[in-house]
Amino acid sequence: MAPANPGGGWDQTARLVQQLLSTGRILPVPSEVINRGGAGGTIGLAELVARDDPHTIMVMGRVMLGSILTNESAVTLKDTVPLALLLDEYEIIAVPADSKYRTFEDLLTDFKRDPQRISWGGGSAGGTDHILVAMIAQAAGVDPKNINYIAYAGGGESAVSVMGGNVSAGVSGYSEWRPYADAGKMRFLAISSAERPGPGSPPTIRESGLNLSVSNWRAVVAPPGTDAVTRAWLTEALRRMRQSRGWQDALRNNYWADSFLTGSDLENFIEREMDSNAQILRSIGLVTDDQSTAEYAAVGAFVFPVLVAIGLLLSSAGALYERAGGQRAPLQQIDWRTVAGACVLLVAYALLFNPLGYLLATAGFLFSIARLFGSRSAVRDAVFSVVTSASVYALFNFVLKIGLPSGVFG
Amino acid sequence: MIENLVTGFGIALTARGLLFGFLGVTIGTAIGVMPGIGPALTISLLLPLTFGLDPTTAFIMFGGIYYGAMYGGSTTSILVNLPGEAASVVTTLDGFQMAKKGRAAAALATAAIGSFVAGTFATAMLMLLAPFLVTFALGFGPPEYFALMVLALTTVAGLGMESMPKTMFAAFLGLGLGTIGIETQTGQARFTFGIPQLLGGIDVVIAAIGFFAIGEVLWMAATLKYTGQEAVRHRGPARMTADDWRRSLPSWLRGTFTGFIIGVLPGAGATLATFLSYNVERRWSKTPEKFGTGMIEGVAGPEAANNASAGGSMVPLLALGIPGSGTTAVMLAAFQLYGLRPGPLLFTENPSLVWGLIASLYVSNAMLLVLNLPLIGLWVRLLDVPKPLLMGAVVIFSTVGAYAVNNSIFDLGVIFTLGAVSFLMRRHGFPIAPVILGIVLGPLIEQDFRRSLAISVGDPTIFLTRPISATILLIACVVLIAPVLSSAARAKSGKG
Question: What is the ipTM of this complex?
Fold first, then answer.
């Protein structure tokens, strides 16, 4: 399972792992990637734990630690069984190609003088990009609440903001932005690793005198009910995958560091990361009970909703005024009984979707609604209902491989 | 370039290229017709199956799926008022009205031919202008996007027929629904009431299905007794008449232009392109008041814009490695899985892939036209299905589509609730399309407004000091004020 929509880093990792596990014949059974995007991965995490099926394992990473806290997720990583740490991806700090900042020190000097003048473009609020900026602020003696961070939906969008010169500096994954720097469209100032990861790498943040390093690690976790034997078996499968040529090639192509870790070492690692992450999020004001202390933003989160509410009130007032002015179009005659019947059928359909299973619920619904709408031939309706629901079921389950609930037949 | 293109056609026209191109467009058309299941989901489902293929062949198939889905999306909008994705919401406004008048075949034909025209032109522009367009796209920062969204919002004025306050109410309702979920700039959850499924916001596909499909079914339940059960008769000429052609052609070209430009901008999207195109059509028309009653321009323009924006979004994907739509995001992931480096160097590092793909887009477009025109006769037959069965089928296809988006029963509850809201709005004369526009625009307009002011450290003149943003805002003002002035002038001359 990838707890994200297709296209992002977790999805990429999940697909890579799945591909290597199946083509390398490491797993004796076929496997597939399922995407459960949303809410920084916490929707996927909640489903993994709720389903508790040892045949489902999930890719996750550092960002999830943040979203568990900011979304106040009821399910946390303590509810999972960690299998293996797969890789470290380092963060890059880049500026537009025509920026006046030649080195990271130049940027830091201006940042210390007037923090809000430096706008940082990066991924979602509370994600690793954001956290790195907060850590830089802390290390440079700037209050993290004062950083001017502009969140984008992903590394692609924020790359545009850097290349277009809209932000002073940008933060993203090394491999993601490397092509832009190679093409001369942006300039790398620093990398977040402890040591330079290889040729062509910019200096580390440490070399500029700030004692910090961050990696956007990714790991694989299993559901809570995984027993020791299954866990050992899955860990071993991942270990074999790590030794495969495909994995080593992928590490090199993506400039990932091989940080493979399993067992209690991994558990300790996640524990440490959770603590430090929570502390940093608190310092930027993302995790707090008091909304008013949330970090610096030129326009707050509740300005727009208030404007919308005012608009709704004004337009309702306008509509009422129009009505009082006598402009009242004749209303269409409504057959309320059929409407009520249709609503009852819809609600019943939604409620019976899972317990009865797709086939029964759908065939029943189709037949009843045709009756309700005054169809004349019961036999025709019955045939139509059964054929339609069976074909949709077949299409989804066997062609598209999107599992519809099988219910009583399961 | 000619040389490259010849090489590209050499790849696209091999038996293998043609076969997978055809497979792509067929799958694309089929999933385009299904509400909820878009090209992004389809390509990600197919990814594991394509590892045995070489990347060029796989991308020829993906390109076919993407273009094909754009063709298929309009079908259900026109026939049963069920937009399969947000980008075909606008098509329902005049397309469904045309179908009610017995002109479904002409509406489907103008959509298909318009898609062909747009797809072909867009691919040509992608081929000829990609490097220039990339510079243009990079010139768009948050203030420019904000101005563009404001311009799009002015199209609301053209979406309601009767009452301005009611139209505004619908738009604000949409903007309000769009604020649900985690807000992007500071990561706070708004109006989620502790429900985790709401953290990601209301998916616009889910909203479109609820407001249109379920709303339509409830409306049918309410009025079937009085309007009768017989199917729509095929009145009027089934094919496009000479007059239809004369009216459609300029609309296709305008739609292509609008759609392509919007498609190139990674922060905008196809839905925006279709709404803007609809507005363009209304402004050019001599009878703007007739829009919403079955004007063929209202189908031709947005449908062309829809396809052109798909072509446009290939520009940032191929020339920069930046996805401008959900589908290109999945294609980007596919590049990485094949070990390719998408980015500014893709054109020089993998010319055979890029040019093979571009050539195959031309081929796919031609295939789609040949595939879709004969299908029109078949689709129109759908209207012969008795209403009670057809309405049941609309519910089934829309719920299964909504379910497929997140595999969640919760979304069924959402579409049924929104359907009930839609029914009440319709009963009291509120238009529905502005709600969808609001849901799409709300989050974008807000985040770009806030990003702009963050960049300028709170200085609001940023919108006026940047030339592109100032120009777009000026156009928006003209668009808003011009009809008022011209109607005032007309009233004056009428009196005098």
Answer: 0.81
